[in-house]
Amino acid sequence: xxxxxxxxxxxxxxxxxxxxxxxxxxxxxxxxxxxxxxxxxxxxxxxxxxxxxxxxxxxxxxxxxxxxxxxxxxxxxxxxxxxxxxxxxxxxxxxxxxxxxxxxxxxxxxxxxxxxxxxxxxxxxxxxxxxxxxxxxxxxxxxxxxxxxxxxxxxxxxxxxxxxxxxxxxxxxxxxxxxxxxxxxxxxxxxxxxxxxxxxxxxxxxxxxxxxxxxxxxxxxxxxxxxxxxxxxxxxxxxxxxxxxxxxxxxxxxxxxxxxxxxxxxxxxxxxxxxxxxxxxxxxxxxxxxxxxxxxxxxxxxxxxxxxxxxxxxxxxxxxxxxxxxxxxxxxxxxxxxxxxxxxxxxxxxxxxxxxxxxxxxxxxxxxxxxxxxxxxxxxxxxxxxxxxxxxxxxxxxxxxxxxxxxxxxxxxxxxxxxxxxxxxxxxxxxxxxxxxxxxxxxxxxxxxxxxxxxxxxxxxxxxxxxxxxxxxxxxxxxxxxxxxxxxxxxxxxxxxxxxxxxxxxxxxxxxxxxxxxxxxxxxxxxxxxxxxxxxxxxxxxxxxxxxxxxxxxxxxxxxxxxxxxxxxxxxxxxxxxxxxxxxxxxxxxxxxxxxxxxxxxxxxxxxxxxxxxxxxxxxxxxxxxxxxxxxxxxxxxxxxxxxxxxxxxxxxxxxxxxxxxxxxxxxxxxxxxxxxxxxxxxxxxxxxxxxxxxxxxxxxxxxxxxxxxxxxxx
Length: 715
Ligand SMILES: [Zn+2]
Prior knowledge:
By secondary structure, the chain is α/β, with parallel strands linked by helices. The chain contains 23 helices and 16 strands. The chain starts with a helix and ends with a helix. The structure holds zinc ion. This is Putative glutamate carboxypeptidase LAMP1.
C-alpha cells in the first residue's frame, strides 16, 4: 500500500511539473470572457469620465478641448497604453456677429422683429456659469454676408420639396428660404437652396420633429428641445480641412503645408456661397406666422398647435447678416497603441471624436467615455498577461463636427501605411442617446457583429441578448451601411477602403432632440439618455469584443458571402428602379456571382488549413499560409475603391458605399450609379443614360477586382 501510494505521489508530482512545463498561457477566449465580465465593467467610472469630459463646452480649437485631450491622454497613459498626440493646424470658423430681422409688410405696418438668437439657461442649471462659453448659434463655414428678401417656406429643403414648390408655381429665386431640420444634411439644405437661386437660408428646429409634438414639456423636465434651443452645426459639404483637400494639414511651426486660398476653396464647391443661420423652434414659428401665400400641404405642416404653415413668398422680408472669422487652429487627435505580439504590423483601429459643439454629453463624449471604458478593460487584461495577436489602436479624434477633420487629416497623412496594414476601423460617435442597439457596417463584418451582440445582455432587458432585442420579432437584425458622411469612418472606408463599422444605442432625432444644442449636457444624459450608464457599459462591451476578435483570432473573422448577398440585394433594388430603361445590369450580377464563388473557395481553403492544424500549425510555412489568406481577406475591401473616385467627388474612392450628391446623410449602395440615374431622369438624354451604363460597368469591375483579391491569383 505504502509503495503504491509513494509511486502515485511521485507520479502526481512528475505530471504536475510536466503540466507546469507545457502549460501555455490561458487561451485568448478566456480573456475575451473576462473582458465582458461584471468584474471588469464599471458604469460608475464611465459616468465619472463623462462628467469630467463635459464640464465645459469644448468646441474644436478651444482651450477647453485641449484640456479634454490632456485628460484622455492621461487616462490612457495611466493604463500603460503608450499614447501620443497627433496634431494638425486646420482652418476652422467661429462666429463674429449675427443678426436676424423680420420686416412684416402686412397693413397695418408692424414694427420689425429682431431675434435674440440666444439659447436660454433654466432655473437651477448647473452649467449656468459656463453657459457663455457656448459659441453663439451659427453654421460652421457659413458664407459671411447679408441677405434680405421675401421668405419662402421650403419644408426640409430637399430636391423633391423644391419640385413641389415649382408645381404650385412658387419660385424661390432671390428669396430667403426658411427650412426645417431633419431629413437631410444641413450643408445640403443650404446647397440645394443656393442651386434654386435663394440668397439666404434660415433653418429651424421644428417642434413637430424635436419638441414632443407640442406637448409643452421640454428639458430639463422632459427630453425634448426647449423652445429657445438651436441645432448648430457645419454646412461644409466636403471632408477634412477645406484648405488641404486630399493631403494632411501638417502642424509645422513654419506652417510648411500647401494650402488653398479662400478663392480656391470657394471654387472647390464644398462651402456655401450664400449665408445661413440656424434658429430655434420659437423663432421659426414666429417667422412662419408672417408668411402668406398658399397653405402648405399636410405633411409640410407643424405640430398640432403650431400656426398654419404657408409657403409664401413673403410678404414679410427676412433680413439676415452673418460674419464669421476663419482661423488656423491647432487640433489634437489622441492615439493609444497596444502593440500586437505576433502581427504588430496589422492594425485594428477604434475611433471616437472628442470635440463637441457644446457640452457634448451624447455627441460625442458618451462615445469617449465608452472608449475609455474599453481602454480600462484592455489595460486590465494586459495586467493579467494578455497580449493581442495584432496591434490595437485607440483614437480620439478632434474637429469631427466641422467636417470629420481630425480623422481625415490623420488618414490622409498615413494613407499608404493604413492601406497596407489596417484590418478594420470601428467607430463610435454618439455611443448612447437612449435604448436600442444600432450597427452600421461593411457587410463582411455583419456575422462578427451579430456574434458579439449575442454575447452581451441587452442593458434594457436582461433576459435578452442585445442580438435578440435588435433582431426583434423579424428574427434578423437590420444593418445600416456606411454611405453617408455621418462620422469619422468616412475617411477609412470611403477614401481608403478599410472594412468599417459604427455602433450606437438610441439613435434618431426623436430620441435625442437636443442634438447639437446647448442642452446636450450631463444632466440630459443622466435624466434621459442613460440614467444607470448600463447602456454605456453594453456599448463598450460590443465595441471591445469585436475589436478583440479581430485582433486575436488567427483567421480574420470576415465573411465575404454576406458581402455578396448584400450586393445582390442592392443590385436587385437598382434593377427594380430602372427596369424600364435600356440599361444592362448583367455585368453587375455576373461580378457579384464571381465574388460569391471566390468567397466560397476562400472558405474551403481556410477549412483545409484548419484541418491540417495541431502541431503542424507551429511550422513557419503554415503560419505564412494563414497570413497570406488573411491578407486577401484584409485587402478585398480595398478593391472596391477606384483611383478616380465618384464622379465629381473624387476624394470618395469607394464605389459601393459613399454619399450621394444631394443628401450626405444618405447611405445607399452604388452612389455613382444612383447619382447618374438621378441626372438621367432629369436630363432625359441618350448621353445621360449612357453614363448610367458606364457607372454600372465601373462598379462591376470593382467587384470583380475584389474577387481576384479574394482568390489571390493573377489572371
Ligand atoms: Zn458626433
